[in-house]
Fold:
Amino acid sequence: MLINAVISNFMSIGENRKLSMVSGKARSKREHLLKDKKFNLLRLSTVYGANASGKSNLISSFEFAQKSIIKEIPKGYTNEYNRTYVDNINKPSHFEFEIKVDNSYYSYGFEIILNKGSIVSEWLYECFPNDIKNKKIFERDLINKEFSIGSFKNSSTINRIAIYFDDVKNLDTVLFLSEMNRNKSDLYKEKNELTVFNDVYKWFKYSLDINYPNRLFSNYSYFLKTAKTEEICEMIKKFDTGITSFEIIDAKQDELNNKVPKDILKKITEELEEDISVSKKEGKDISSIGAILRGDKDFYILEVNEEYDIEIKTVEFRHGDCGTFRLYEESDGTRRILELIEILFSENDDKVYIIDEIDRSLHPLLTQQFIKAYIDSLEDRKIQLIVTTHESRLLDLDLLRRDEIWFMNKNSRGDSELYSLEQYNERFDKKIDKAYLAGRYGAIPSFREE
Structure:
């Protein structure tokens, strides 16, 4: 789970902009919260702002950090420091995340001078909520050429970390957290003191699910949950798409060849054939062998039958008495809702979905209906949803808590500021949407009249 994120000197984001998922003082709708021993966490945050206010830049900061950790420092960011101040070219950009993994809390971050692609510092702490005391796991200062390791019970653990650090001590383009997870899977086969490096790394790799309007969001895997077919159909009906049911049907190889890029299809097919070969030799269950291939407006399921042949399937939607339709024949709005529904049926704990422009292609009431459905689906799920939106109908204290509403606004210098509705301490019966459009909270377009 995400607790806090602090970003500075990145694109339009200036000094230490903080997005907090810790609940505020609002007492309403406590069922929205995931209760913790030390504090309660929000499972929804909505970020509002005018066009070019920096909302997408906030999402990009998460993605930049994620790519830097699980792959390498991305190329093409040398000019993406905050250019509203000339001196920022030589100042480090700051990325820090407080997260909860299982029952432990960590603070991980790094600083990098983007113009040079040079990492200047990195740190990982185990933190204790509402306690000043933190336990250092490691600190790295590349400017002063210093590296320090926290206290571990086993001295051999400290020696091992030091050995691994020697591989990157002079490299300012590699994060130590990344290095501790590069070709070291054997290191974490059994739980040990070093597992913390793998736990934090996997949170960034698997828990953060970042999505943009122009990217495919879902692979529609929830359609394969045959035990929930009826439940899925009922959920789809709630969004007035006209779909009354669906069915998994056979698809032809020629169709797959025409819809999926050849290199991707070749790679997936080779992987499946390798899995089939291993299963034959070792007599393993083949039910888990398969893949889902997603195209722009369609998707395909590759399964392996009892004869070890690869079968190709897809989904077909029925619209009452109007007949059946394939995914590519559905409207943009329907495909968008069918993507978002995956969140409602996600069984992954500790998943943080981040969606830029969640209202893209959706009718305002449809966006509102999805947020209602998401809230209704929460119960005890360890899941979070962070979205940017222009949909003012969500600015309703009958629907959201004050601390679930954030604003992004550019100040007079062009810095993007991030702040919560919580700071305004509005009454529960306040018409937030009207106050927002009237400019009370900022974060709206400012028009000039000639």
DSSP finds ten helices and 20 strands in the chain. The chain has a mean pLDDT of 90. The first strand starts at residue 2 and ends at 8.
